[in-house]
Each structure stands twice: as C-alpha cells, then as structure tokens.
C-alpha cells in the first residue's frame, strides 16, 4: 500500500492495530504520551514515532486516534501541538476512541472548517479483537470519506459500517454497551443460580448455549467466570466510563435505560470491591460477594 498514516495512542487496542497497518504495507508513524512505548513499537514493527501529535501526523493521509475519553481526544487533536495543527489539507482523522457523540460532531465541524475530514469510529471486540484483526467498527461521517478510508480500516477489522452522519458511530457504540451490560448481568445471574441450585454450570451452559440463550458473552466468558478469572478483557473502569456517556446521552434524548443504569451501579459495587481493572464479566464476583 505504502500509504502514509499516523496512529496516536498505543494502548492495549492501539498498539496491535497500528501493527496491523504496518504489516499491511502502510508507512506508519506513531505517537503515545509515554514516548517509551512509542519507541518500543518502532523497535518491534519499524516505522517512525513523533514526539507530539502534530509531529507524528506530518504528511499523513489518514490519522487514527485511540485514546481514553473525551478530554484525551481533545488533548491529542486540538491545540498548537495537536493532530489537526499538523495535518495536510484533505487528510482524514479517524477517531477510534469511545467518546461522546457531541465531541464527534464538534470535531467534525472543526475539521471541515480547516479543510480536513473527520470520522468517528468506535470499536468493539476487545484486546483479542485488536490483536487478531477482528474488530467491529461503527462509523459516523461523510460517505465519500468513509469509502476512501474503509479499505485501510479493514486491515484490523472484520466488520466496518457507516451508520450515518458524524456522531452516529458513537451512538451505535452506546447501543452496543447497553446490550452488553444487560447480557453480562443476565449471564452472571444465571451461572450463580445454577451453582446455588446444585447444577453443574458447565453442563448447563453446554445445553442452553445450543438454544435461544446463546450469546458471545456466554461462549467466550462463562469458563473464566466460573474459574473466578477476571484478569483479562474489557475493564470495569472502562465500562463505567462508557456507561456514563450512555446515561448522559439517554438523558439528553429522553430514552429510558433502567436496566443499564442498574447494572452501572452493580459495576460501581465491583469497583468498591477493588475490581476496577477486572473484566466486565466480574459481575458474577459481585453476586457471590453479596451473598456472603
């Protein structure tokens, strides 16, 4: 490909995603607030690293960002040393951060006013999805811009879909998190019930996973849940950040989310237990702890 791109944010998701772009033949320059991690990425994959976002994006046709939250996106994108300040006319910034739809619309307007392009593109699939190039990408923005950058995203995604104008990708990610919250709580309650009823929960899942109860969470998390292994996957702290975004947007559009709000409080209980960095499936640990 030899397309010049920049990747800003080398966390558990961004590090392997940027690696896939390099392996696909892109000319990749990376940036990370911890410069040592950026240097380590270059040692592993090649390419270059920049000391600031502005420096990293010089000459890039596409700039990818994958950081923590709204404030982090603003810090990386805006200001004198931000990405927008260094991007060439016509370049596109693709934000993979799970952030607010309001921020996506704000950055879209800013980009357009500076003859740049912006796509909000939050991701789902976790660390394993990033490492195995099997992420799901939910995008918002202009069709022509999306069609141009989609083939590049395909190097680390198994599915990428444009949902509508700027902010639509973030809204879709909110729906994703709403659905996951209820599913994981239901799975935790079911496994807890099975154990207390004297059933073998492994046998139970083997049976019900063949029917209407089947889900990705059941297939991929029930064994580790039963083994009290929560040191993997998407952390509770991150989920609570996402659900805070969901609750804010739900209030704005007057959408009722009673189950999601309740599960958010259950995740708060897990944090109080010291499980902020545990996987979101640790809702089962909360049920066991509550019963003591």
Write up this protein.
The protein is an alpha/beta fold. It has two domains: 4-165, Rossmann fold (3-Layer(aba) Sandwich), CATH 3.40.50; 171-290, N-(1-d-carboxylethyl)-l-norvaline Dehydrogenase, domain 2 (Orthogonal Bundle). Helices cover 53% and strands 14% of the residues. The chain has 14 helices and nine strands. Strands 3-2-1-4-5-6 form a six-stranded parallel beta sheet. A three-stranded mixed beta sheet has the order 7-8-9. The longest helix is centred in the middle third of the chain and has 29 residues, at 168-196. It is globular and about 65 Å long. The N and C termini lie far apart (58 Å). The mean pLDDT is 97.
Summary of the model, kept short:
This protein has 14 helices and nine strands. It has helices at 14-23, 35-45, 53-56, 70-77, 83-86, 101-113, 126-131, 143-153, 168-196, 201-208, 216-226, 236-253, 258-272, 283-290; strands at residues 4-8, 27-31, 48-49, 62-65, 92-95, 117-120, 123-124, 135-140, 157-164.
Give helix and strand order, one letter per element, not per position: EHEHEHEHHEHEEHEHEHHHHHH
* End-to-end C-alpha gap: 58 Å
- If you compute it from the alpha carbons, what radius of gyration comes out, rounded to the nearest whole angstrom? 20 Å
Number of separate domains: 2
């Amino acid at each position: 490909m030899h397309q010049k791109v920049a990747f800003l944010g080398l966390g558990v998701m961004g590090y392997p995603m940027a690696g896939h772009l390099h392996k696909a033949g892109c000319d990749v320059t990376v940036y990370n607030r911890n410069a040592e991690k950026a240097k380590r990425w270059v040692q592993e994959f090649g390419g270059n690293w920049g000391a600031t976002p502005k420096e990293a994006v010089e000459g890039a046709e596409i700039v990818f960002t994958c950081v923590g939250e709204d404030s982090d996106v603003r810090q990386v994108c805006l200001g004198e040393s931000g990405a927008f300040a260094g991007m060439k006319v016509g370049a596109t910034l693709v934000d993979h951060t799970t952030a607010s739809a309001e921020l996506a619309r704000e950055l879209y307007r800013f980009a357009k006013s500076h003859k740049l392009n912006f796509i909000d593109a939050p991701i789902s699939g976790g660390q394993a999805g990033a490492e195995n190039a099997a992420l799901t990408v939910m995008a918002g923005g202009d069709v022509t811009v999306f069609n141009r950058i989609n083939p590049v995203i395909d190097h680390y995604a198994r599915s990428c879909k444009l949902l509508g104008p700027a902010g639509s990708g973030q809204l879709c990610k909110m729906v994703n998190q709403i659905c996951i919250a209820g599913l994981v709580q239901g799975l935790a309650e079911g496994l807890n019930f099975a154990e207390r009823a004297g059933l073998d929960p492994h046998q139970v899942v083997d049976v019900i996973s063949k029917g209407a109860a089947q889900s990705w969470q059941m297939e991929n998390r029930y064994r580790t849940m039963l083994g009290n292994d929560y040191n993997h996957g998407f952390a509770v702290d991150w989920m609570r950040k996402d659900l805070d975004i969901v609750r804010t947007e739900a209030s704005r559009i007057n959408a009722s989310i009673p189950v999601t709000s309740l599960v958010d409080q259950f995740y708060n209980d897990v944090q109080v237990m010291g499980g902020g960095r545990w996987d979101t499936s640790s809702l089962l640990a909360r049920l066991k702890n509550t019963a003591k």
